[in-house]
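Board notes (copied after class):
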Amino acid sequence: MASYLEQNKDRFLSELLDWLRIPSVSADPKFHGDVLRAADFLKTRLEEAGMENVELCQTAGYPIVYGDKIIDPSLPTVLVYGHYDVQPADPYELWTSPPFEPVIKDGKIYARGACDDKGQVYMHVKAFEMMMQDGGVPCNVKVMFEGEEEVGSSNLGIFVKANKEKLKADVILISDTGILSNDQPSIEVGLRGLSYHQVEVTGPNRDLHSGLYGGAVPNPINVLCKMIASLHDENNHITIPEFYNNVAVLSEADRAELNRVPHSDEEFKESIGLKDIYGEKGYTTVERIGIRPTLDVNGIWGGYTGEGAKTVIASKAYAKISMRLVPHQTSDEITALFQKHFESIAPASVTVKVTPHHGGEPVVTPTNSVAYQAAADALETTFGKKPIPTRGGGSIPIVAMFKSELGLDTVLLGFGLDSDAIHSPNEHYGVFNFFKGIETIPHFYRNYAAGMQK
């Protein structure tokens, strides 16, 4: 397999660049046709790699690309999940090269979706191709790649519930996470959940002249800023009543184990241009990211933001607010608590509308399973070091859904780095990481097949 990879590296990389040129932005309707083109591209590449029963499964939104290779129903089955949609590339002016014209600089592929998640999905396509060229896969494989992950996966749950027999498997394999570094592999075993909202604050029935009305009417932008500021106290503790009621509290021993992860606050600050760290008092940076809930404003707007000046008191102000959740919080519970609290802190002079957007549940995956050990051994084989289990700060809501609907645990075998700037301008993915993933994934299959037969 190593020789096949070496012989085909240029082609593998060229194909990925072609896929990255398709702007599959699911959040923006103007890219509708491009998202469909990305799905077609993936379908064709899976068929060429040797996958069978490849189809575009229609949903109320974008199609799910499904395929399988069943070599023996008595053997275990791995279901691979990923997504072919990408985040919007805005603001375009902050990119050093056009986001959908991929370039390779300093060993990194710069493009929207390079790491999240096209580059990591394509590792699985090429790893499957390699195995098929080397005697076939050692167990059954199914793949399910969706086109709506970046907008909440609203149709995936419907598809999964309606296709449980089609998706029947023994474990889920996902590459949509990362490793600590290219010198130290890791496996994420915990993910935070999510509760996401848009809020709207309305004052006067129209925009007003700030000289004629200023000082006598509520300014929705000022009010919104005060409301948002009140959501944290002086210790950066979230002030929503009952917010922390169900938060899982780790023992001192578990916290000590978590903090064994190699981490430097100085390097962390330098990597993102900070003068000092910031967060909830009483917790380390690793803990703040991995085991504590958060509340952040993801966007805020209102009034006049164009060139020059316009002395106006806006009628409305808006913000997008998300909360990352930890075991044993639920998105429904936190959504209700946030809405009740945010409405309660508004002054009588304005009206407030809270619109929940989407959510997802936190999850912790087992480290004592055959699948986890298969992944750990695969990483040790290709990196030469044992991987460290870590808790990730991000959210992959479908992991909890797979557990509840299919009864399956997930292995998060990702190869991205924290520095890859996913969701930001200049997203990139290391060429090393792309090929290391292709090299590692077949070892997972061999290890898993052997472990399940013991």
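Comment from the instructor: The longest helix spans residues 431-452. The chain has two domains: 2-191+362-452, 198-247+293-360.
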